[in-house]
Amino acid sequence: VSAPVAPSPVPPPGLAKRMKKSKQPLQVTKDLGRWKPADDLLLINAVLQTNDLTSVHLGVKFSCRFNLREIQERWYALLYDPIISKWACQAMRQLHPEAIAAIQSKVLFSKAEEQLLNKVGSTSQPTLDTFQELLHKHPDVFYPSRTAKALQLHWQLMKQYYLLEDQT
Questions:
Q1: Which of these, 69, 87, 113, lies nearest to 25 by C-alpha position?
Q2: Which residues, 6+ apart, have CB-to-CB distance to 147 below 8 Å?
Q3: pLDDT tens readout for residues 53-112
Q4: Where are the domains of the chain?
Q5: Phi, psi of 9 (to 5 degrees)
Q6: Is 32 exposed, middle or buried (0-12, 13-18, 19+ CB in 10 A)?
Q7: Hey, CA dihedral for 96, 97, 102, 107, is it positive or negative?
Q8: Single GO cellular component annotation (predicted)?
């Protein structure tokens, strides 16, 4: 009877590389290229505004098309994965202030914001002053970067689609 051959303690060079690569978290390396810092900032602001990942999926235009599951996975990764969260925060801090302002202007309107806009009658001809007054009366409801012009444009869209209180 021959003695069993002991396995060699050193794996072949190609296998060692494959083993090292497989030890890395798959999700971290998979998402690095697709999720841009602007997407992360937009995702965070949109979720904080709407509290609804499905609404974010349907209403936000990211730099590339993400399905609902990818958006959910990224949101949970930003919340609970310390590595991804750290990298994303560092990248978002490096965004130019103008880029941040542009991203913040794309944030979805919350239901509370739309309820306030809803009260402006469809038969009235509101001016920018009307919406500016609305901003001053309800600073706790409106997203901080909202302008009177942004409110007016959104109100016009709501009117166009018959979403105002006094429309049928």
A1: 87
A2: 135
A3: 999 999 999 999 999 999 999 999 999 999 999 999 999 999 999 999 999 999 999 999
A4: 37-105, 111-161
A5: -70, -25
A6: exposed
A7: positive
A8: Ino80 complex
